[in-house]
Design a protein that fits this description.
Shape: globular
Helix content: 25-40%
Radius of gyration: 18 Å
Mean pLDDT: 87
Strand content: 5-15%
Largest sheet: 2 strands, antiparallel
Number of helices: 4
Order of helices and strands: HEEHHHEE
Structural class: mainly alpha
């Protein structure tokens, strides 16, 4: 007898399986896209991070126009990437930041997410 599995349970098991399976270079394909969940940035998050790691006035609330430290934004994106398990249980090692830019400030209430795409594969 076949019993239907609720879609939320099925999604949970698929996510769990993705986390367990290790993915390597040969498992990737050009054009493959990974989108992370979203996270909201609060004023308290911005100030707490800034006080500990980047205590400049625009990040601590000491000046008008509170904005998140770029390093805070980078750390949040890294967390989103890790939590999305794009390589299953294989750790995200050797990610480069050669072209890291912050063209738009992140402000309290902003919601951020990340999307990665495999542009090329070099063996």
């Amino acid at each position: 007898m076949f019993t239907a599995v609720p879609s939320t349970l099925l999604t949970f098991y698929c996510t769990l399986l993705d986390m367990i399976v290790r993915r390597f270079l040969e498992d990737l394909a050009v054009g493959e896209v990974n989108a992370t969940p979203e996270t909201a940035v609060s004023d308290l998050d911005i100030i707490e991070f800034a006080r500990r790691y980047d205590p400049q006035d625009m990040h601590t609330g000491a000046s008008e126009g509170l904005i998140a430290s770029g390093w805070h934004t980078a750390a949040l994106v890294m967390r989103l990437l890790v939590d999305s398990h794009p390589l299953g249980s294989t750790p995200l090692l050797g990610l480069g930041v050669e072209d890291l830019r912050w063209p738009t400030p992140v402000r309290p209430g902003d919601v951020i997410k990340a999307e990665t795409e495999v542009l090329s594969i070099v063996r």
